[in-house]
Each structure stands twice: as C-alpha cells, then as structure tokens.
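Deviation from plan, reported transparently: NAP complex.
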Amino acid sequence: MSAYASMQKDANYIDGTWCAADGGDVISVTNPATGAEIGTVPNAGAAEARRAIAAAEAAFPAYAALTVTERGALLRRLHAEIVDHADALAALLTAEQGKPLAEAKAEVLSSAAYVQWFAEEARRADGAVIPSPWPGRKLMTTRHPVGVVAAITPWNFPSSMLARKLGAALAAGCTAVVKPASATPYSGLVWALLAERAGFPPGVVNVITGSARAIGGELTSNPAVRKLTFTGSTEIGKELIRASAGTVKKVSMELGGNAPFIVFDDADLDAAVEGAMIAKFRNAGQTCICSNRVYAQAGIYDAFVAKLAEKAAALRVAPGDEPGSEQGPLVDMAALAKTEELIADAVERGATVAAGGGRHDRGGLFFQPTVLTEATADMRLAQEEIFGPVAPVFRFETEAEAIAAANDTEYGLAAYAYTRDLGRTFRLQDGLEYGLIGINEVLIVTPEVPFGGLKESGLGKEGSWQGLDDYLETKYTCVGGLTG
Ligand code: NAP
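Because the crystal trials were delayed, the predicted structure below was used instead.
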C-alpha cells in the first residue's frame, strides 16, 4: 500500500456525498516521475458543477450564521487534520506533482499555516462606526461573507494555492465549489476529506474534477456564484474575467509571473547564488514567483555565473520520493518541449550554455538544471514564463538600466535583488513594479503578508488581513431619527 493511500480519494464531493461523474467518465492521473497511473478521478462537467453550486448555495445561510468562534473552531480542526496527516499528504503531492518530498511537506505545512492564520482572522472581520456629519444619525459599516465562492487552482502548488482560498472563504463565512487542476486533482480532492473530518457541514466545501471548460463555464456564468478566485495562467485568467462579467462576480486572480532576480556589484555573492538557486530551481522552476530572468551587474557577472553554474550542475535530479532529491521531473511533455524550445531560441540568438541545457540522463520528464549566459532582451525567455529549470543570466551596467529591464514585462508578481546599499534598497522598492519584493531574501512568502501580483499578474491579495477582505462585502447602514 502506498504512503498516501489513506488520502487518495477517487470521487468528487458534492453536498457531503462522494460521487462519480454523471456519465461515469474518468480522468487518468499519472506520476510524472514514472509515467505510471496513480488512479482515476471523475471527469465531471456542467451538470455536476450546477449541483455543487446549488449545494453551496443551500448551505450558505446556516454556515454564514455560525459565530466566528464556531467557524474558527472548524478551521482549527481542519488545521489539525492537515498537520496530523502531513506526511501522507506530502507523499500524495509528490506522487502526482513530482516535486521533492521535502518541498511537498513544506507546501503542506504552508497550507496548514494559512488555515491557522484564517482561523484567527475570522475574529477580525469587523466593521466601523463613522463619525456622522449629520445630527441624530449613526453611520456604520458591517462586513458580510460574499456568498458562494468558486475556486480554480493550478497543478504547481495544488495544496497551498487552495489553502489560501478555502481558508479565507471559510473564515469569512462563505461556502465553496473547488475545481483543482486535472494533472494534480488528488491534492484538491483531499481537502473535501479533511473538511468532512473536521466537521464542516455538507455543502460548505464541494470539490469537483473534470472538464475545465464545462465546469469553468458553469462556475463563471451561474448567478449563484458571487466570487471567482483563480490561480493559474494569465491567458486563462483573462478568459475567466471576461466570462465572469455577465454576472458581475467579484474576481481574485493570481496569474503568471516573469520575476527578475538582480545581483548588484556590492552584493554578498555567495548569498546571491544561494538565493538564485532556491528562487530558480525550487519545484524545477515551475513556480509563479520563481526567477525567470537573472540580471548580474558587469563587475560580478563572470564570478556570479561561474558559481551559479557550478551549483546548478551539482543539483541532484531524481524522483521526488527518492532520498536526497533536489529537483523532480517536469509536469508533462509539453513543459519539457517548451523548455527545450526556449533554450534553442536563446542559443540561436547568442546565449551560451554554462550548465545543463537539455534532457536529463534519467529520461522521461527529467531535465537538467540549466544556466545560460549572455541572455538578451530579444530572446523569448525574456518575455515568456519559462516554467522550467533554466536560469538565463543577463548582463547590466547601471541600477537604472536594471530597474528598467526588470519592469519591461506585462507581468508584476515577484522581484528579487541582492545589494548591500541601503539607499538602493529603497530605490528598488519604489522602482520595481512588483507585488512582492525580496531584497537579499527569496523565501518571503508567509500567511502574515499579502501575496498578489501587479499589472497582468493579478487582481487582489491572498494571505494577510487583505486575504480575508477579498471574501467579504461591506454594507453601510445609516440609522436616522435618533434626536430625542
Ligand atoms: P492554467 O492552465 O491556467 O490552469 C489553471 C487552472 O485553470 C486548472 O485547474 C485548469 O484546469 C483550469 N482551466 C484551464 N482552462 C480553463 C477554462 N477555460 N475555464 C476554467 N478553468 C480552466 O495554469 P497551470 O498551467 O495549471 O498553472 C501554471 C500557471 O499558474 C503559471 O502561469 C503560473 O505562473 C500560474 N500560477 C500563479 C500563481 C500566483 O499566485 N500568481 C501561483 C501558482 C501558479 P485543467 O487542469 O483541467 O486544465
């Protein structure tokens, strides 16, 4: 029996009932490290989505009426379920997604941390009493759950991306319909099991898998859904915003990135290399906030590249469940082919391969950690999300040049820089058009801070106090006639 058998649910969860797709169709889920089938999940469509929405709508009034103490207690039990089963959940995540077990465990614990954060935030959904400009009136705001929330999540962080949404929605008093990515549905379906065990009433959490278009079409057009929260590509995000316009839903969008990683001459070079390794190669480069473009200043360019290439070449590429694995496989053949294409395009336009450069000896979906030097702005990987283990290093001379190059993209999710200059640190804070900025640090995400992109990287924030705000509506009430 696998290490995750107890967490692997092959059915959808609608209104507190585990069910198959209406037609009995299934989707096969494979392990990217081996190509072997892990199992199958329902291939549901619009009809199942409609039922899930109806269940969430029916469950909403009673769930929204729970006290914040009661909702907080449910979330704390959900947190305990995640922590208690963290090893099995991590094994499940690695099996379907491919990342090293240590990264999977960190993701699962991050999910638990978001749930805990929102269990606490539930108590702070307060309003305000506003000083009145009129005599005899009281003006106040109160905050209320938005209603039924639809959540669509990606395959690269199939657990934690959902935690930020479900944690906030459930804390605010919303009910939810979740559609996880088809490549990694188990890490989504298991939230239904955990929510059931934690004691959430039927209909509060519904999880359906299957046709993105059919389910997405229903989630975006059904008037009972009052909010759509999506993490995924900018291209699909734009489609979903358009589709949600017909019923004027609130939308939260966590979309693609093209993160710059800037190393200045005055940086602690070893720390910068260490940071670049994590920011680039975590999850085999399949991370929305991973550095897509590395900029090194001319004075340290050669030394930086040499150290980075050495470290990249030494990364241990292996199936995620193999002890010591530091980089697992890519998600599918399309990802592998795109990574190859981007490298070929860069080399054709003058880049040099300093490490890696192609498929790994392990075969299948394994790819060598790659460093390219003399990258330039005309290369496709300067504008496109690579989503693979490739670090193109661009050369720059001045701070102004680096900031301008960093901002030369429609994306605005995360940016990193290494410098010891305090003045420059704050010029970067002002100048970089990004929602998340790490100076001399790359592991900067935690539930306490707002996570979200600028420009075409998204709308809204997840985590922090703002994460709850996005699931609440503000009502203003004026009570008059109070003069005696
Ligand atoms: P994707 O292709 O946009 O898919 C994301 C989700 O949307 C999946 O569940 C997918 O379902 C679903 N989907 C696809 N087409 C749809 C449609 N027409 N209607 C409704 N749903 C639809 O993205 P991905 O490849 O899974 O994830 C990688 C992308 O996510 C990257 O661009 C990355 O930067 C971004 N991302 C952003 C953040 C952030 O916080 N900003 C975090 C992680 C990832 P199927 O799987 O069934 O196709």
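The mean pLDDT is 98. We consider this an acceptable substitute for the interim report.
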